[in-house]
Design goal:
The structure holds two protein chains of two kinds.
Chain A lengths: L1 H30 L18 H6 L14 H28 L7 H13 L2 H15 L8 H23 L3 H9 L4 H29 L3 H4 L8 H9 L6 H32 L9
Helix pairs in contact in A: 1-11, 3-6, 3-8, 4-6, 5-6, 6-8, 7-8, 8-11
Chain B lengths: L3 E9 L5 E10 L4 E5 L6 H9 L6 E6 L2 E2 L10 E4 L11 H10 L5 H14 L15 H14 L4 E5 L7 H18 L2 E6 L2 H7 L2 E6 L2 E6 L1 H6 L4 H6 L3 E12 L2 E6 L2 E7 L9 E6 L4 E4 L8 E13 L2 E7 L5 E7 L3 H4 L6 E6 L5 E4 L2
Parallel strand pairs in B: 3-8, 3-9, 6-7, 7-8, 13-20
Antiparallel strand pairs in B: 1-2, 1-4, 4-5, 9-10, 11-12, 11-14, 12-13, 14-20, 15-19, 16-17, 16-19, 17-18
Helix pairs in contact in B: 2-3, 2-4, 3-4
The chains are: A mainly alpha, B alpha+beta.
Chain lengths: 281, 361
């Protein structure tokens, strides 16, 4: 009885959820194939890949200038990679530290988590004021980078905390009791076992940093990151080339996810497969 | 020289909880020692202190005469076997077993020879290249043992190693353990809450309760001559009867109980006149119909209140005075006894050399 009522309701709910989740992306993808004379809205006057070619500089120079994203794309990717490395390392180390209760661990926990809770605009503004006060030049690789780490580190930390929560300490103890040093135990026992978690922490850090806007707005200085550049183009006029870029960047994200999935699959399979290779050590 | 010495070892947690206190023990080389007690009695904590996983708050631990109290676990000549096996899931059986040898600076040939020998010994050759988590419990426990033994520890520490196995497999591995220990001559310290394991495997048993050592002795000693009330209640199935006004009679003693005077062996620490408990093992008691001649001096009168037979063993519950009852075991071969019905008046008796008087509390 309940299931008969509940099922269609849940079905509708689910459909609505998916619609709102992917609707904007689908609309954006469709509009990206607008013809050369068309605007950033329906109807599509002509199906073409014009805006993709425009984006890549493969069209005749015209009234509409190319999206100035080359440099900022590179900057955003570099920043995301830097953030990923630092946040993941910090996340793993901190979560490792939290495995044993220590005095003030509760306070430290909330101090770390604060980084993802406080409003980004405020932190950005605060950082801008602080750097002015201290006479530090604002830059995407300096002030903005620090804020990206402060923002993404808690996510990496929480992921690793969850992983360590389910981690069986006796496996490490077994290694120690066999005479293997703590450092070797981490490298050869702990790390391979938490690797899927490390991958997730990296993915979180990367994607959060890559499209971070509010914290970067006040702190990146004159060299803008990708989200800032895109936002900047809105203030002039919107053309479908930005949609084309959106589609490409989404494809890029999917590629990242695919790589993540493949690595994850490999990690899981290597933990399960019947044939293992000899340790390379 | 002792293989292992614990001198006044204690463990107090920062919040003041005392996990273990005043633990004294000296283990001979090649001895098989079992720590036996209910969960939370401190037996695992003590084992982990020997392994180095827990700091000790008081006292010292010596291994082969060397004080290791401040030595980290990886530098102690001990190897620990865990209840959940704690195998490395990302390694093959072979890698698991060879893991401890990797850091010992052996040549590949030496290492392989050692791993091959121990895999042979445990019958693990056919699984060598499988991942450990694809194997059965018994196989995994063998891998854990092989992994722990291949590094040639002075002492093997086993933390409830049979706990996760089903009953049949437990018996098999239990026998293997016993043979293995005899063959290798390595000192084993074994933690268990199952008295059958401790009684069947070990040379000596340390009975623990609430962080304290209650009794240290051979399996026969702790079984036949419990030193404390806890041991009398925990090991075997003893009937416990309160007694008062102890009287020493040669190497025996007797006390007044609600069911008459009972005689038994008595620890020398108990003073005359003291109140004690009388522990009578269920299998030492005999039951007979009231009015039948014979029987030994410790006689209890009562009525049969329950009776059932399991295979060759008949179990009777005999009600003594409406408040206390004793359990008696007999052979089902004794047909006269098996005809006893509920409510029949009986006499339960026990030779005084099987009776132990222990201090209260």
């Amino acid at each position: 009885m309940e299931a008969r009522v509940l099922k269609p309701i849940l079905g509708v709910y689910c459909a609505a959820f998916i619609l709102f989740l992917y609707g904007p992306m689908i609309v954006l993808a469709i509009l990206s194939f607008q013809g050369a004379g068309g605007g950033p809205q329906f109807p599509i006057i002509e199906w073409s890949t014009y805006w993709y070619r425009h984006l890549l500089g493969m069209t005749e120079p015209g009234r509409i200038s190319r999206l100035p994203i080359g440099d900022s794309l590179l900057r955003s990717l570099t920043l995301a990679v830097m953030t990923t490395v630092v946040s993941t390392v910090l996340g793993v180390v901190t979560a490792q530290g939290f495995r044993t209760r220590f005095k003030g661990s509760g306070v430290v926990f909330y101090l770390v988590i604060l980084g993802m809770i406080v409003p980004g605009v405020l932190v950005g503004l605060g950082m801008a004021l602080l750097s002015n006060l201290l006479g530090i030049n604002r830059s995407w690789w300096g002030t903005a980078f620090v804020l990206h780490v402060v923002y993404t580190f808690p996510f990496a930390f929480l992921v690793m905390l969850a992983i360590f929560n389910r981690f069986d300490r006796s496996v490490e103890e077994a290694s120690l009791s066999l005479g293997v040093s703590p450092a070797q135990t981490f490298r050869r026992v702990t790390f391979p076992m938490i690797f899927p978690g490390v991958l997730s922490a990296m993915l979180f850090s990367f994607t959060l940093s890559y499209d971070e806007f509010s914290r970067t707005l006040f702190t990146s200085g004159r060299e803008l990151t990708l989200p800032l550049t895109i936002y900047g183009t809105f203030s002039v006029e919107i053309y479908p080339n930005i949609f084309a870029f959106g589609v490409l960047t989404t494809l890029f994200s999917f590629t990242l996810l695919l790589i993540y999935a493949l690595l994850m699959l490999r990690a899981v399979r290597s933990a399960r497969s019947f044939k293992g290779q000899e340790e390379a050590a | 020289m002792y293989d292992l010495q614990l001198i006044g070892v204690g463990k107090t947690y920062p919040d003041g909880t005392v996990a273990v206190s005043d633990f004294d023990l000296a283990v001979e080389p090649g001895e098989f020692v079992a720590f036996l007690g209910p969960s939370g009695c401190g037996k695992s904590t003590t084992l982990r202190m020997i392994a180095g996983f827990e700091d000790i708050s008081n006292g010292d631990i010596l291994i082969k005469g060397k004080n290791v109290s401040a030595t980290p676990p990886e530098k102690r000549p001990t190897s620990m076997i865990f209840q959940n096996y704690a195998l490395f899931p990302h390694m093959t059986v072979r890698q698991n077993i060879g893991f401890g040898l990797d850091v010992k600076g052996l040549s590949t040939a030496e290492k392989n020879a050692k791993v091959d020998r121990i895999m042979d010994m445990f019958g693990l050759n056919e699984f060598a290249d499988r991942k450990a988590d694809r194997l059965s419990g018994g196989q995994r426990q063998r891998i854990a043992l092989a992994r722990g033994l291949v590094v040639e520890p002075d002492i093997l520490l086993l933390d409830e190693p049979l706990g996760a196995l089903d009953a049949n497999l437990r018996r098999v591995i239990q026998n293997e353990l016993k043979l293995l220990q005899r063959e290798l001559g390595i000192t084993f310290v074994f933690v268990t809450h199952a008295q059958s394991e401790a009684l069947g495997l070990s040379d000596r048993i340390v009975v623990m309760n609430r962080g304290r050592v209650e009794q240290i002795g051979t399996p026969h000693e702790v079984y036949a001559a419990p030193a404390t009330e806890f041991v009398a209640r925990f090991i075997g199935s003893n009937a416990i009867i309160e007694g008062a006004n102890l009287r020493i009679e040669g190497d025996m003693a007797s006390v007044e109980t609600a069911f008459g005077r009972l005689r038994g062996r008595c620890a020398s620490s108990i003073t005359p006149g003291a109140s004690v408990l009388v522990a009578i093992p269920a299998e030492a008691m005999r039951i007979q119909r009231t009015g039948t001649a014979g029987g030994s001096e410790n006689r209890l009168h009562g009525k049969v209140s329950m009776k059932h037979a399991v295979g060759s063993v008949g179990h009777f519950k005999v009600d003594l005075d409406g408040k206390q009852s004793v359990d008696v075991q007999t052979s089902t071969d004794n047909e006269a006894l098996m005809q006893l019905a509920i409510g029949d008046a009986v006499i339960v008796d026990c030779p005084s050399d099987r009776v132990t008087l222990v201090g209260q509390g």
